[in-house]
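Data card: per-record layout.
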Amino acid sequence: MSRHIARIEQAKAKAKAIENEARMILERAKVEIGAKELELRKRAEEKFAVALREQERKTRLIGQKEDAIEEKRRAVDKLHKEAAKLQKDSEEQKKRNEQRLLEAQIAIEKAAGMTVAEAEKVLLSQVEERMRLDAANIIRRAETEAKNEARRRANYVIAQATSRFASDFANERLINTIAIGNEEYKGRIIGKEGRNIKALENLLGVDIVIDDTPGAIVISSFSLYRRAIATRTIELLLQDGRIQPARIEEIHNGVKAQFEDSLLEDGQNAAIDLGVSDLHPELARLIGRLKYRASYGQNALAHSIEVSRLAGVISAELDGSDKLAKRAGLLHDIGKASTQDHDGNHVTLGFEICKRYGEGSVVLNAINAHHGHEEPLTIEAAAVCAADALSAARPGARRDVLEGYLRRVQELESIAVNKKGVTQAYAIAAGRELRVIVNASEIDDRETVLLSKEIASEIEQKMQYPGEIKVNVIRELRAVELAR
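The structure for this 484-residue chain is written out next.
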């Protein structure tokens, strides 16, 4: 029992100790809260004092501004009074002037013997006549100045375009020369009884000239494309060393495929060099084909690039789009790439091709306008027309003699190709011989003789040429079978 009482006493002592500690903590908290309240009250009083001083400053400023406004108001009232007085004086002066003018008018009418309306009519008539003459002189002078300025501006633009672009002279070349390292290759190219050279000429559609010129043979043809393929084929044959009809045909087929693939690359390279983007692959291929076309001795691709660059400069000088003008210039003669395969002139073909592949109205207008099929509707189209004329007319750009020859040999080939059963036709020997290859399954030996006479007769009727043209019709039958 005594132990229990002792524990109670201990608990009471602990409770009293805790109570004393809590009272002390409470006292300390009260002291701290009082200190903080004092500090906050001090800060609030300081802020209030600052705000009060600011309010007093603003009040003084407002008072000063009100004084200034009052002073300005008094000045404005004074000005209003002065203006009213001036207006009154002006009206009185106006009345006095009108009275004097009326008196002067009456005096003038008496002296001149006519009324004011009559005098006014005479005066206006004289002024109108004088102004009409002055206007005519001004218009005539303006027209003259406009023409002179237009001529000066055109000369400046053309000078800028031509001075910033230079091109080569047209080379009137119809032959390629192939260097050979050994003279014995000439005999191998000719072959036994001329078998190899005949196979080459029949397959390539060119003349192969092997003469006494040391270390060289000559490839002759009006077609740049055929001549390039023939040159590459013979170069590969010389490297390979196996010169025989079967190998000739194999290499020729490979070279022809490579050339077809290179057309796209050539067109894309030309477009990249000119900054022409988003060009349809088929348009790029046709542009590449222009590399092997010529007009009056001027390479068609080189001409298109030249027109593109010139048109870009001219359009930029006239505040047009140089990029759009370059695009139209590059595509303006694209129809020439298809004239050998389709009927129609190159303008119509080019328009249809570009329209098919989504070219814009400016390009289409430039194609039609550069040969006068329609008027140029934009600065860019007009720039292409001017650039085309500059490129064609500059000294050394074209050769009329070469173009006349090319037209003649092309007409020779077209006469033969249009005949039934003809698969290929080549004008060789500078146009003095027409080599025609026919399909053996469609034409027999007797029809071959008749075909040669028919072609010769049509040439005599449709063409004018010096000397004579030999028509050589070749009929060959091949049978191929595989041994497995």
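Known properties of this structure: The first strand starts at residue 175 and ends at 179. Confidence is low (pLDDT under 50) at residues 168-172.

See the next section for split statistics.
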